[in-house]
Each structure stands twice: as C-alpha cells, then as structure tokens.
C-alpha cells in the first residue's frame, strides 16, 4: 500500500478545504474586501481572511500548486509567506512538504558546486559583484559560459538577467535562495511566455485604445508609441522601473502564471502620467518621463493595474 493512501485527508480536513475554497471564491467577488486588502498590503498589514486561507493551503501535503497559483493571482501574497510560495510555484521546492528540507540541502550543494567551479576557472573572485556571479552561474548551468578572453559587454539578454537579479537581490537576503529564484524565474518566464512577449506591445495598444484613445493617438502622432520602454516593461518585468515593494506584487502574478499583468501595469503608468505625456511632443521626452518616474505613487499604480487586469481578464479560477 502506498504511503499517500494511508495519509489521505480525513473528513475534518476535507471540510476545511471546502470551506477554504468557498472563502476564496467569496473574497474574490467582494470589491470592498479587495480594496481593503490592497490598503492592508500598502500599510504593511494583511487581510485576516486571505492570510488564513493561504495558511490552510500551506498545510496541505502535498501542496496543491494550482490552488496556490490561483490564490497568488487573486490576492497579494503576505510578506511572511511570499518567498516560500514563490519557491514552490517556481519548482525550487517540491509539492511534498516533508521533502523540503532534503531538497533545500541539494539546492545548496548545487549552488556551492557551481560557485566553486567558477572560482577554480577564475571567472569570479572576491571582488566580483554578486549579480555578476549569478549571471556566470546561470551561464555555466545553461552551457553558454563565454570564454574568459571574451571581454565584450553583456548583450541585451544578459542585461535583462542582471536587472532581474538586482531587483531580486533587494527582495531576498540569502544568496543561495536569491540565485535559485532568479534562475527559475528567468527560465520559467522565457519558456512559458517567450512566444507571447513580442505581442504584448500590440496588446497594450488595444487596451489603451479602449481606456484612453486620445492618449494613444498622441503617442502615435509623436512617434513615441514605437519608442516606449518595452524591454524594461516586458522583458525585465519592470525590474529597475518599480521599487521592490511594488514590484513583488507584480511578480506574484507573473510567477503564478500571468504575463498579461505586465500590459496593465504599463497601461496604468501611461494613464497615471497622461497629462505630462500629452504635454510632451518629443518621443525622447516621453521615454525619459516613463523611465525616470517618481517612486512615491507606484503602490497605487500597481493596485489600479491589478484592478484593470481583473476587469479585462476576469478573476482567474486557474492560472492564466
């Protein structure tokens, strides 16, 4: 008899799961509660209902990855659980919770082995910036490590990686955890959304034509539409654009299965700076405004962007 059949959930656990599912459904349909949740997130507190629902999900063994994805799509993850949930959704930790310690040990050993190999080959040393170390480790594991004699500047793909690495470094303290999160985030994003990324600018144009056609026409007429910082927005997932406190709420959605959220964050940035953009006739000026926007109101921008995302894409029942 398999161990998993012996550990099948009893009636009490099944009741709690049904209750948790109903709770998540009712919370998703309550705009007032969603607004309150966004406020709690901004001031550093979490809604009690959402936190309890997540804690019930995290008691499952094995963890239900699909339910965790759905929760992450609907609600901001509580800070105390965010990194753990990201690790599960990115496949760094397996669904079976009793294996987390063992697998975590293997991850640390692999990290140390790759790092030691780079030191032996003299690709990294004590003074190498940590994000550059992450890049070399990623290149070695991906079998694209350049020759040591190659002194050319990082290409655009490497710059995308480094931007994400710098942002992740601000969110995650442990270097080993940080590397695995960067690596799996980049790999999942490229594998899952690589074919969709080139179409996101057109998607942005479509939704902007619905929300604010005058702004879209201005961007077209000035030539700014073609020059918008699409790489910063859609290849780097706003790393280097949004402060980490706002960025991690966007990454909750990306990691749990949506690249469409990036379109609505970009649109909300344009809508938030509509007056300034409409008053600028030079495309370079528009790009400068968008790439150097103030960091004070980004929480509000992300909250509004998530509202727009739910408005046009619905409240997800599964990851989309």
Describe this structure in words.
It is a single chain. The protein has 320 residues and is mostly helical. The protein has helices at residues 3-6, 11-28, 31-43, 48-58, 65-74, 79-89, 100-120, 130-141, 156-171, 175-193, 200-211, 213-222, 230-235, 244-255, 260-272, 274-278, 283-291, 298-313. It is 68% helix and 0% strand. The chain is globular. α2 (11-28) packs antiparallel against α4 (48-58) and α11 crosses α15. It has 18 helices and no strands.
Helix-strand makeup class = mainly alpha
Average predicted confidence as pLDDT: 87
Summed up, the helix count is 18
Low-confidence sequence ranges: 1-30
How much of the sequence lies in strands comes to under 5%
Element pattern in H and E: HHHHHHHHHHHHHHHHHH
Question: Major sheet, described briefly?
Answer: none
Shape label:
globular
Radius of gyration: 21 Å
| Gap between N and C termini | 37 Å
Query: How many β-strand runs?
Result: 0
* Range of helix content: 55-70%
In short:
It contains 18 helices and no strands. It is an all-alpha fold and 320 residues long.
């Amino acid at each position: 008899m398999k161990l998993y059949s012996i550990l099948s959930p009893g009636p009490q656990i099944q009741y709690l799961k049904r209750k948790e599912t109903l709770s998540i459904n009712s919370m998703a349909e309550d705009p007032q509660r969603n607004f309150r949740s966004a406020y709690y997130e901004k001031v550093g507190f979490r809604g009690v209902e959402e936190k309890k629902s997540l804690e019930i999900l995290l008691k499952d063994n094995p963890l239900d990855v699909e339910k965790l994805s759905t929760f992450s799509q609907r609600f901001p993850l509580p800070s105390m659980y965010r990194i753990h949930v990201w690790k599960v959704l990115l496949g760094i930790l397996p669904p079976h919770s009793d294996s987390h310690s063992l697998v975590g040990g293997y991850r640390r050993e692999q990290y140390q082995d790759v790092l030691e190999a780079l030191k032996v080959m003299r690709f990294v040393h004590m003074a190498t910036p940590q994000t550059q170390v992450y890049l070399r480790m990623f290149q070695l594991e991906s079998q694209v490590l350049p020759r040591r004699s190659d002194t050319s500047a990082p290409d655009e793909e490497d710059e995308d990686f480094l931007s994400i690495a710098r942002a992740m470094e601000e969110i995650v303290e442990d270097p080993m955890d940080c590397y695995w999160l960067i690596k799996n985030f980049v790999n999942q994003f490229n594998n899952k959304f690589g074919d969709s990324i080139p179409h996101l600018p057109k998607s942005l144009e479509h939704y902007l034509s619905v929300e604010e056609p005058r702004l879209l026409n201005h961007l077209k007429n000035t030539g700014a539409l073609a020059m918008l910082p699409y790489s910063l927005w859609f290849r780097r997932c706003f790393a280097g654009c949004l402060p980490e406190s706002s960025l991690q709420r966007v990454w909750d959605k990306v990691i749990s299965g949506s690249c469409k959220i990036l379109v609505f964050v970009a649109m909300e940035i344009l809508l938030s700076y509509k007056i300034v953009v409409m008053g600028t006739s030079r495309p370079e000026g528009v790009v400068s405004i968008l790439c150097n926007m103030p960091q004070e109101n980004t929480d509000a921008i992300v909250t509004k962007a998530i509202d727009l995302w739910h408005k046009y894409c619905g409240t997800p029942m599964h990851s989309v």
